[in-house]
Design goal:
The chain has helices spanning about 20-25, 60-65, 75-90, 135-155, 165-175, 200-215, 225-230; strands at about 40, 45-50, 100-105, 110-115, 120-130, 155-160, 195-200. It is α+β, with helices and mostly antiparallel strands. The longest helix is centred in the middle third of the chain and has 17 residues, at about 135-155.
């Protein structure tokens, strides 16, 4: 778009450093506290270590998630497409204030949970997945990211929505989540209904519900040996969803 100038300009053609444009496109980021890392003792005796994902792991993660697009049951194809874009958005700095957690068992990528902050008060839950069956890994990952939001970041509300029937049954109905009036308030995942949890409701009921589902609490006293064993993320060979 070009308009004629209303006055003379000493320099009609302006050059701009793309780094200055990038500062506008990204915008100022909130300073999120780090996730300290935690373990969960699974019922089958394995130890799930939940840590922050690393940017250098993104290409491996994308290659795996891309394969979910061919899974045509329980909405894994659309979940795969959305998770792919979310991870890539984090990698390319096109997702506002994201956090990405991975669950590892002796280095094997077993669980995934991510979200982002709308603002200092509202945490938007995006996706949670178990990549290895057994042990209630999905519940452990959901507990970890909700704990991160309410207990570490200090958010006041948690916004979620659901693509699958199983997800809605376990979390939406299971946690008796209220919802905001739709379509006045929409979740960014497809404009779906927003189910929410307040900090008060988390403290009253939800925290215990998810912890009981996992079976044990998060253990933040992570041995150095466990951290070392899970420094390198190994992608599963099979798609087991």
């Amino acid at each position: 778009m070009k308009f004629e100038l209303p006055t003379k300009a000493s320099q009609e053609i302006l050059e701009i450093d793309a780094r200055e444009v990038e500062a506008v496109l990204q915008g100022p980021a909130l300073k999120l506290p780090p996730w300290p890392g935690a373990t969960v003792a699974l019922k089958d005796g394995r130890t799930l270590y939940i840590r922050e994902a690393k940017l250098e792991e993104v290409p491996q993660m994308l290659a795996y998630v891309k394969r979910l697009l061919d899974v045509d049951h329980d909405f894994y194809d659309i979940v795969g497409a959305r998770v792919y874009s979310e991870i890539l958005g984090w990698y390319r700095k096109r997702l506002k204030d994201p956090y990405t957690l991975v669950g590892l068992i002796d280095g094997l990528w077993a669980g995934f949970a991510n979200g982002r902050l709308m603002n200092e008060d509202i945490n938007i839950s995006l996706h949670t997945m178990a990549l290895v069956r057994g042990g209630r890994i999905g519940a452990a990952m959901y507990y970890a990211k909700a704990y991160y939001g309410f207990e570490i970041i200090g958010n006041k509300e948690w916004w979620a929505t659901y693509e699958s029937y199983n997800g809605w049954l376990r979390w939406g109905l299971g946690m008796a989540q209220p919802s905001y009036p739709w379509p006045d308030v929409q979740h960014e995942l497809g404009g779906a209904k927003v189910y929410y949890i307040t900090k008060k409701y988390w403290d009253q009921s939800v925290k215990k519900y998810i912890r009981d589902m996992v079976g044990v609490d998060l253990d933040f006293n992570v041995p150095d040996a466990v951290r070392k064993a899970n420094e390198t993320l190994v992608v599963p060979e099979e798609i087991l969803v």
